[in-house]
Structures are given as structure tokens and as C-alpha cells.
Amino acid sequence: MSNRTFTIIKPDSVRKGNFGKIITKLEAEGFRVRGLKKLHLSQKQAESFYGVHRERQFFKDLVKYMTSGPVYVAALEREDAVPHLRKVMGATDPAKADAGTIRKDFGESIEQNAIHGSDSDDNAKAEISFFFAESELV
Ligand code: GDP
Q1: Alpha carbon nearest to ligand 1 atom 17, residue
Q2: CA triplet 131, 108, 95: central angle to 5 degrees?
Q3: Integer Rg of the chain from CA
Q4: Which of 11, 26, 40, 133 is least enclosed, having the fewest CB within 10 Å?
Q5: Please, which residues bridge with residue 70 across strands?
Q6: What is the spatial distance between Cα 88 and Cα 107, in angstroms, rounded to a whole number?
Q7: Does the pLDDT at position 67 exceed 70?
Q8: Is residue 1 over pLDDT 80?
Q9: Which atom in ligand 1 lies closest to the alpha carbon of residue 92?
């Protein structure tokens, strides 16, 4: 099990001023931030990042949402990083997420669900290197 994962604090969270609250929660859960950038994803970046969902009927909406405003991307570290972040995030649909999870507390809908977290160690590695050079992880 790798000790790194990748997160995006999504546009709805940034728009509502929830970035600090979400980072505070992640730090309280033992995650350390190794890399952090604020950026406004281009259409190309969003389409490429979510390429696995290209055939899904919500793909266009997802890209539109993810490019609708700035996001924070971060590389996070702690023991069992991938499964622990998935647990702290909660279910994709905030309405179905457990109490106390980030999506329950800050998500609006199955689309505007506050946060992304890698779903496997391999994807965590690929997603971190999509946004960060190794020298930017400190
Ligand atoms: P995740 O791993 O929990 O983020 O979920 P997925 O990989 O299945 O989906 C990626 C992202 O697409 C989600 O986090 C949502 O922002 C969005 N999404 C997922 N399902 C739907 C849906 O049914 N409709 C819409 N509009 N967006 C969705």
C-alpha cells in the first residue's frame, strides 16, 4: 500500500470558500501536504484527467463543471493514503455519504461533490505526475 494519494478541491468548494475547512479536515486526519497548486483547469486538462469517463453520459457536464472555476490540486501523504482519503471523502453522491465525511458536509450534488480522491495506488501515481514534477513534492 502506497503512502501517497492525490486530491482536487473542486470548483464548488473553492467558490464557496471551503478550501481552508477541507484542508484542515485532511490535516486532522493525518494527511501531510507534499505538493499544492491553485489552477483553473483547461478543457483539455479536464478531458484528459477524466478520460476514463469519456463514454459516460455525464462526461460533458463533468468537464464543464471542473473548468467552471479554479481548483486546488494536492499530493497528500499518510499511511494507507488512498483508502483513507476515500473514507474521509465519503460516497460520490453527497446524499448517500456518511455523516462527518467531506462530501456530506460540503458537497451539493452527485456532480458538485466538493472533492476528488484517487481510487487506486496506480491512479494516485498517475494523477500526481499529471500535475507535479517529483521536485515539486516536498
Ligand atoms: P468518484 O471516484 O467518487 O469521484 O466518482 P466517479 O469516478 O464515478 O466520478 C467522477 C466524478 O464525476 C464524480 O466525482 C462527480 O463529480 C462526477 N459524477 C459521477 N457520477 C455522476 C453522475 O451521475 N452525474 C453527473 N453529472 N456527474 C457525475
Answers
A1: 111
A2: 110
A3: 14
A4: 133
A5: none
A6: 13
A7: yes
A8: no
A9: 3
> Which grid cell is 55?
463514454
Q: What is the CATH code for 2-136? A: 3.30.70.141
**What length is written for the chain?**
138
Q: Name which residue sits closest to atom 16 of ligand 1, judged by CA.
A: 111
Residue 104: which residues within 8 A CB-CB, separation 6 or more? 90, 94, 97, 98
Q: Is the pLDDT of residue 51 over 80?
A: yes
Going from N- to C-terminal start, the domains of the chain cover 2-136
Residues 74, 117: contact at Cβ < 8 Å?
A: no
| 3 state DSSP class of 82 | helix
Please report the pLDDT score of residue 2 as a whole number.
79
* Residue 69 pLDDT: 98
Neighbouring residues of 35: CB distance < 8 A, sequence distance ≥ 6: 74, 75, 128, 131, 132, 136, 137, 138
User: Cell for 17?
Assistant: 470558500
pTM above threshold 0.90: yes
Ligand 1 site: residues with CB under 6 angstroms? 58, 61-62, 92, 110-111, 113, 116, 119
